[in-house]
């Protein structure tokens, strides 16, 4: 199959998409349902429409763009990723798997291929935890892991509910209808930047993901006693932030305690109240992210953090409450899908190697409802979730080329 990936067009589209941001370039901030997200969604919809795909969106903004196959009654092959971005992020995380998948479809269309099965591009809503505190909200709901009741209890920092936010963005359907019917797809493949340094270090252009690490996140709320920074003497203080600081250090110690390089933990969010330089913090809220490819080891870290919270609470005479927001199992990718990706790399004459994903992805949840695989491309120095995140056009084009061959193979 003489496949032509239009790398220049794709590079341009990624650059246009990056302009829909709440932060100045080169940073990208695109939080779900905010104005930049809504403008970005409209742009992606316009590109999918121009490619002749039939579009639909569900109640939480998952976008489905379908290229009808010869037999539309057959379960489709699905590919996709996300376009939302955490604050001060880069322009390739997720977007390569959305616009790259669109380019793969366009390249296949240009060959005159008519796939037996339909091929559907799925752009997942709210993959990042930024607004509602939990990652992969769209794919969790699609997989049925999160139900409408749990989703209705989600709030952002302004107290807005998921329903408030989605309806304001024009998504007015019923969240209970989001879950995919069984057997909707025969395969799901996500193209994504590695978000790590291994491919670049090894000089390999393509990574075949065999497993996706098990993510967990914890919310820690510390309540002490505030007061005047000048008047409250040190022995009398019950400083909520300092208790939080000890807990954050305990998070780091817990991750290091496993002696396994695959265990990671981060206290990425810290809110201090009332947040005045001359007021002793009365409350501190932490959000903690813990991951490992071994679920038991990950859970042992969570347990150590909980124990540290009890210890700090007693020693510092503060109250500490914890809430596990999510603690998901790791995912193993489907051997047949990995084989299809491997065969496509071989057909195209590209080197590839198996690897694990330390980042989580929508594929982690799609693996619950469809045989799933992921294809990684290198990103410079492994940097991601930073404005200097970068993937070279030739690496992106190579990933799109292999994705296209794999989609054609899976849809035949
Ligand atoms: O955090 C993650 O692993 C993903 O990039 N949201
Ligand atoms: Mn991300
Ligand atoms: Mn991502
Ligand atoms: Mn992802």
From TrEMBL:
Its cofactor is Mn(2+); Zn(2+). It comes from the Bacteria. Pfam families: M20_dimer, Peptidase_M20. Zn(2+) 1 binds at residues 82, 93, 192. Keywords: Hydrolase, Manganese, Metal-binding, Zinc. Its EC number is 3.-.-.-. Belongs to the peptidase M20 family. This is Putative hydrolase. It comes from Luteitalea pratensis.
